[in-house]
Batch of 3 targets.
Target 1
Amino acid sequence: MRKACPGVLLRYHVEHERVRSGVAANMLVHITKDFEELSREAARVVANAIRKKHDLRLGLATGSTQLGLYQELVRMHRQEQLDLARVVTFNLDEYIGLPSGHPQSFRSVMFRDFFDHINIPRENIHLPDGTPRNDYEQYCGEYEEEIRSAGGIDLQVLGLGKDGHIGFNEPTSSLASRTRPKTLTRQTVEDNRRFFGANEEPPHAAITMGIGTILEARRVLLLASGAAKARAVALAVEGPVTASVSASALQMHRNATALVDREAAANLLHREYYERALEMTRKLTPGRLW
Ligand code: GLP
């Protein structure tokens, strides 16, 4: 496994990208009217990416925010011949310790809500396996290796936890972290309780791609919807880069877009600027918008 302190890794990342793409661009912020518009726009970005690169390496997230995106992609597959036959997917995370086939495992949710309705071949689908084990380091290293040997992730879709986490990178996760098991915060356990039965304790741990893993994706699309995410969105986009808000690390990414609805954008200070910046990007560098 690669080891580096966060500062070194981030400096390497910024320098590396400056060499590769000329500039390290800022995070684009796209504010939509509501969840429906957000879902349509997210699907447009993903579908365009697939049309441009049929064997897109697509990083996926699980959560209610992604549901509209997945529904829209399924609709495009059925009605607009969106072909996903060569797409390869890598999911961000999975709970540790749920019995296999549990309806709330991220594997079950992803198949039920997305994979069962489109034409990505099963062998192209990768999700971390949350079976308890005593060789996490080796297992997580192999997941990283699968991503690397597939050529890296072209587009990573992310949701946002109320505490500002991406994947399950809870506050204080190293900004250089790689795929590993992670203890969930009380807030996250409580947020997830709604998906579990009244007498069922939600999982307290998960396997998640690290922040370092996520930062290596060529493009990142962060989705957030609703007033409950407004604080986390403001911290992620306008706060300091800090391990206390893992999504803030995306400020170091060269091609990250935060796609948020009006409610989730409510605490952002520079909303008017983001709208103008998006307009200007459409004119100057439309390729960034796919
Ligand atoms: C979990 C997942 C995240 C997701 C977050 C928000 O913590 N690990 O990937 O972004 O939930 O979920 P929701 O979209 O349901 O609010």
Note: The chain has a mean pLDDT of 92.
Target 2
Amino acid sequence: MQINGKAVESCGGEFFDIINPATGELIDQVPGGTKDDAALAVEAASSAFGDWAYISSQQRARVFYRAVEIIRQRKDALAALLTKEQGKPLLEAKNEIEGFAQVLEYYCGLASSSQGDFFKVPQNGYAITVKKPLGVCAAIIPWNMPALIMAWKIGPALISGNTLVLKPASSTPLTNLTLASILSEAGLPAGVLNVVTGPGELVGEALVNNHKVKKVSFTGESMTGKRVAELAVSGNKRVTLELGGSDPMLVCDDADLKSAVAGALRGRFYNCGQTCTAVKRLYVFESIAEDFIKKLETAIRGLRIGNGINENIDMGPLNNRRQWEYIKELVAEIEEKDEGRIITGGKVPANSASSKGYFFEPTLIVDVPGESRLLKEEVFGPVLPVVRVKNLDEAIKEANNTIYGLGASIWTKNLDRAILGCQQLNAGVIWINQHLKVAPEVPFGGVKESGIGRENGPYALSEYLDLKTIMLKT
Ligand code: NAD
């Protein structure tokens, strides 16, 4: 836990274990935060707000630049820590740490560009708007991309002059705590960023309920998001919700099959399938389905599974037991109900039985019926359901048949089809001939049960700024 720039224990004196998901070994223990810890962190953030809001955005950016330099120097160690607690292969962990650095760098450049507007008002008047930071913000984040999502929150919040309390996921707080201490080392004043570890229902809710918290930015499951939104709205707070997704990938008969196979492989199995915008449903034209499935099967069979800390690993374990049990149970149910044909995978790898890790084979299931849980729920793991469709109209109809609306991709060389996909697919992000790609410059977020608001890009700054209007009579 980090409050007021210092590592502290919890008021309750409790600790909880952080387990390596590849080995089942204990890596570390962190303080089990309480409501009192959340309150102390908010007080620290509140005390730090005045001075931090007062200095220029360039001064704030200097802290970010120094932190980015340290992070790049320690990238290997940070990536190894992330792999140990999260399970992702080292290369993915390095990408994520670099992503953290790039997000902070992006906001340094943007910081001074966020100015107000000037208006000429009828009857000899003028008006200007100025933008003001909100005050104390709370950020509650998940375990799938703990470093990147931390950057998506603290980048725009802190550069705009807010202070923040971060609540990491309980299985992945170590990288978050280390990154927070690097920011302190880089000169971030005490109290500007505080990290409280502990259960979501306790620490998370205490933050959302605290009257000094002006904005809550939440990333996690849709159900948790609804609970957070209810509490935030009843306290009249701003709220951003980045929630679950069940992204469809549509492969047309004119698609470049080689790149579509590579896109599906990465889109589904990156981070062991635990990416909010992972390809969670694949719709392929029936005329090319056999060929596509064969090629995808070969590619999936080539994935190397193991402890991500080792060289040449393509896919690590699931992050936690709950997730692992869910995936095992879901696939068992699919087999029991005969909902589709498992082409490859479908079980815990034989050679991982002794490792105590949460491994599951990358799994391809074809001809899955529309009512299957595989197509209805957000499947956060390495299981890819494939459905054959007659044409693009049917693909779009099926793709939109979901409560979610985070991302969607269409794979085609035909511009008319690509445009139709962009117009008719109901999601916050549409990719053409790619999937998963995000960038600090580009707004990101979902529609329907996938969320409210946007992160990244210039727009994210406005999520952390209030407008004050000043009217002048001349
Ligand atoms: P989760 O909802 O279980 O937990 C997210 C965070 O909320 C954790 O820190 C948790 O401790 C906290 N929390 C739990 N209950 C709470 C409560 N009652 N009040 C306040 N906080 C509470 O989600 P998860 O399992 O950690 O993450 C996976 C989910 O996150 C998936 O649904 C995934 O799609 C989603 N996600 C979305 C995005 C996006 O940008 N849309 C990005 C990454 C992950």
Note: Residues 260 and 411 are 7 Å apart (CA to CA).
Target 3
Amino acid sequence: MQVISNPTQDEIKSAAKSIKNGHLVSFPTETVYGLGADATSEKAVGKIYVAKGRPRNHPVIVHISSRKLLENWAREIPEYAIRLGNAYWPGPMTLILKRNSRALNFITGGQESVGLRVPNHQVALALTREFEKLGGFGIAAPSANRFGSVSPTTARAVEEELGKFFGSEDLILDDGQCEIGVESSIIDCTQVNPVLLRPGAITKEMIEEVTGLKVSLKTDESEIRASGLLDSHYAPKAKVILGLSAQPGDGFIALDQILTPIGSIRLASPASIEDYARDLYGALRMGDQLGLNKIYVVEPEGPGLAIAIRDRLGKASWGTRS
Ligand code: TXA
Ligand code: MG
């Protein structure tokens, strides 16, 4: 495995060739780092499942460079999905659409739908474009972490998570820290009205504004495919506990105006909700690196990205494992 820092256009081109040749390429997006493979190759996508230790019936998102390429993967695309694509792509949004015959079971987890996203990141977009120039149709990419664990927001974190599972010709493209830090909003567009499956930077209100439709929530995305398979998701090794009562030696994460409980180890002090989202996963990872047993996290209040943060913390937290 090779790490390429601040990849040039030529290096991105050659990374696209690697994907075409069936190798894995981890790449940055505006949300988290993805683990990419040719979405039409069962063998290449199989490597993602092995590297992540992910159950085979769990679907992966296909990344494309433009809304205009949706028809390559989906059929009967509703008008409201087109509106969403026009408004928020490239961006932190994944649309679930009825699949067409290109989206095979190893992409959809055997479901009749396929997840598609146009990422808003210079490297990710250049990579999908170069891949399409080579005749590729899309890059399958889940977050580049072991299944159930915290998504990586830096190339370093990808290396720590998956380094030992990469082959010698696989690559990591390093372009610094991800801007948003929590995964894309996932919107099910196979129903009459949109359903928000996973909250992210594109909020329910933003979806309603563009579509003029009432959006319902179903925030337990793991239930769709993987219910009961895992104790938790988005979780570090340390126990994540929601609240303030950290004891000496415990990790602590909260907005900067909240004081650190005496003796606890402050892992992050974000000044805003945006900073909170961007720094959360790195802070949880830091807790693991320090070998902490418990990390106390004070959830941010309010709408918008705070909803996405609370969603992930709910899943990561020990007390609320389902
Ligand atoms: O921000 C993101 O979305 C990142 C970056 C790399 O793009 N990707 C990401 O992928 O978070 P992943 O696989 O870690 O999470 C995608 C979620 C999974 O929980 C999966 O179950 C769901 O999307 N998903 C994918 N295709 C689906 C489908 N056809 N129907 C329902 N859920 C689907
Ligand atoms: Mg993931």
Note: The two ends are 36 Å apart (CA to CA).
